[in-house]
Design brief:
It is a single chain. The chain folds into five domains: 87 residues, DNA polymerase, domain 1 (Orthogonal Bundle); 63 residues, DNA polymerase, domain 1 (Orthogonal Bundle); 90 residues, 2-Layer Sandwich (Beta Polymerase, domain 2); 70 residues, DNA polymerase, thumb domain (Beta Polymerase, domain 3, 2-Layer Sandwich); 240 residues, Metal-dependent hydrolases (TIM Barrel, Alpha-Beta Barrel). It is of the alpha/beta class and 579 residues long. The chain contains 25 helices and 17 strands. It is globular. It binds one DNA strand of 29 nucleotides through helix 2, helix 4, helix 7, helix 9 and strand 6.
DNA sequence: GCCGTTTTCGGCCCGACTGTTTTCAGTCG
């Protein structure tokens, strides 16, 4: 799939340069390229194997883009792109990263002042040359200078891991919820869609006193800078440099506004086209009849979807990748809800070096969640710092046996989190593994082996009868460490063949397996387990994130083993362990 | 550049804020 990545890389550069060339980020050509780029990103086949004709059949890719993709595959480059690179050198393109500076202004600066790069721009500002340009003034010049100063902190392309963004959003929502005049409040945007990285936080408020809400918003203690403040829209920066947008709408429009600001952009466009086909228009205030100007629907998302003849589409699915068509055809997955989860199969205690709560505390926590079954899976000894030896594992088993009577309504499985070595072995041989009720095996080291080796490594672990599930499949830490590279199709084939489950790890820094991997498992006979990987009682909250992640991955409830009743679950566990 | 249950041509999502203007262009989401 490295060719797919190369095609994506060159195509996104084409998008960038075309924005400059057309003097607009919204020209039809730019939008067409963006659509083709997104189709390319969602492609689950290798472009090398596809003809231009096949590519052009994909929604969003026409004959022109198809030929460009073939040109990249066949020649390793793109003539059109080469030409654009001459006209718009990298140093000039860099300027597009400056917030508030768009293609029109960049071209103006180059034509009028000969600005070719960041240094040239700084010189023009220092010489007070900008303010002399048409449409510009002293304030534009100052604003530009400020944007450049904080460029490293929050350029347009900076994305924040969800683990950092989510607590900030929760703090802001909590800070505004009590303000006089706030009827409803919700964070929207990519955070509500549960993307793993967030560009900025969008907070939406329903209120009849927008001015009051905006004033309170910019005064929140977490705010470090006010970028813009209007009656219904304000923009601030918070500590850490993350941008937060606030929008205030009338209560009657809240549903339309939540829908609109949750996006994605492409999902909105798909819905709007549906509205237009019915003689209506859809914006953040409602679904409206174009002729009569009657509001058809605006209060809730569900009502708006219903008016458009669609079932409610969960926020996590709204990426504009075919969910509207699937909804219309009745082919959306039946999504998991937190209440469906009966078991947690990846739980640590302080018997592991990195566990932060006692076995009893963790079991109490699991029981408090109302779980029917739980697996204690402390690290095995292969993980030198954290792991338990064979003797310690046997001792823990005895301790757990002695505790079962305290939890009459919860079945406790004694498991282990096994460590997958570079060649796919795990810590112990079959005779010792047989003694466990459950095994989750994970990659904890050697992240940079080549893809073939990693693929063999994962598959070997899946084939091990003592391994019921692969934990955090890629081993990534979002924003800090990329996951291992592996052949997704081959690993999914192995999951289907061996019956080994794939974990959806709810740790916010992991969210592993990734959503695109999960989506590629659609239609296959693969089981999943949604786990917290809890190292402390508070980590049981990760179940929420595991559920969100599974929904982003279009995982069907029926394939999630820990939604099954105990007996069915145990039969499934045994089948694998006797394989 | 893409697309078709009115269309193979003529559309393409829509609105807020800023800073510049006296009605709008640029940027952003």
């Amino acid at each position: 799939m490295s060719t797919n990545r190369e095609a994506i890389r060159l195509f996104s550069e084409l998008v960038q340069l075309t924005k400059l060339d057309e003097g607009s980020a919204q020209s039809f050509r730019v939008r067409a390229y963006e659509k083709a780029l997104s189709a390319l990103g969602e492609l689950d086949r290798d472009v090398v194997d596809m003809t231009a004709g096949e590519l052009a059949k994909l929604p969003g890719i026409g004959s022109s883009s198809a030929n460009k993709i073939r040109e990249i595959v066949d020649t390793g480059t793109l003539e059109k792109l080469e030409k654009l690179r001459v006209t718009y050198p990298a140093a000039l393109v860099e300027l597009t990263r400056i917030p508030g500076l768009g293609p029109k202004t960049i071209l103006l600066l180059r034509d009028q002042l000969g600005v070719e790069d960041l240094d040239g721009l700084k010189a023009a500002i220092a010489g007070e040359e900008i303010r002399a340009l048409p449409g510009m003034g002293a304030r534009s010049e100052e604003k530009l200078a400020r944007s450049i100063e904080r460029l490293g902190m929050h350029g347009k392309d900076r994305r924040t891991p969800i683990a950092e963004a989510l607590p900030i959003a929760e703090e802001i929502v909590a800070g505004l919820a009590g303000i006089d005049g706030v009827k409803h409040i919700e964070y929207c945007g990519s955070l509500r869609r549960f993307r793993e990285t967030i560009g900025d936080i969008d907070v939406l408020v329903a209120s009849t006193k927008p001015g009051k809400v905006s004033a309170a918003f910019v005064e929140l203690p977490i705010v470090t800078e006010v970028v813009a403040q209007g009656e219904t829209k304000s923009v601030v920066l918070v500590s850490g440099g993350l941008q937060v947008d606030l929008r205030v709408v009338p209560p009657a429009s809240f549903g339309a506004a939540v829908l609109y600001f949750t996006g994605s952009k492409q999902h909105n466009i798909d819905l709007r086209q549906r509205a237009i086909a019915r003689g209506w228009t859809l914006n953040e205030y409602g679904l409206t009849d174009v002729e009569t100007e009657d509001v058809i629907s605006s209060r809730t998302e569900k009502a708006i979807y219903a008016a458009l003849d669609l079932p409610h589409i969960a926020p996590e699915l709204r990426e504009g990748i075919g969910e509207v068509a699937a909804a219309e055809a009745g082919e959306l997955p039946r999504l998991v809800e937190e209440s469906h989860i009966r078991g947690d199969l990846h739980v640590h205690s302080d018997w592991s070096g990195d566990g932060r709560a006692t076995l009893e505390a963790m079991l109490d926590g699991a029981a408090a969640r109302g779980l029917t079954y739980v697996a204690i899976t402390d690290h095995a000894e292969g993980l030198a710092i954290n792991g338990l030896s064979r003797d310690e594992m046997l001792r823990q088993r005895d301790v757990i046996d002695g505790m079962r009577f305290r939890y009459p309504d919860m079945t406790i499985l004694h498991g282990a989190e096994l460590n997958i070595t570079p060649d796919g072995e795990v810590d112990w041989a079959a005779d010792f593994l047989e003694g466990f009720d459950w095994g989750v095996a994970s990659v904890h080291s050697h992240f940079d082996l080549d893809a073939d080796t990693q693929t063999r490594r994962l598959i070997a672990a899946m084939e091990n009868p003592g391994v019921n599930a692969i934990g955090h499949l890629s081993g990534r830490m979002i924003g800090r460490r990329p996951g291992i590279e592996f052949d997704v199709e081959a690993v999914l084939d192995a999951a289907e063949r061996t019956g080994c489950a794939i974990e959806v790890n709810g740790h916010l820094a992991r969210l592993d397996a990734a959503a695109d991997v999960l989506r590629r498992a659609r239609g296959r006979d693969i089981s999943f387990v949604l786990d917290t990987d809890a190292h402390a009682v508070s980590d049981f909250r990760n179940v929420t994130w595991a559920v969100h992640q599974s929904r982003r991955g279009w995982v069907d409830k029926a394939s999630v083993a820990n939604t099954w009743p105990l007996e069915k679950f145990l039969r499934w566990v045994e089948r694998k362990r006797k394989s």
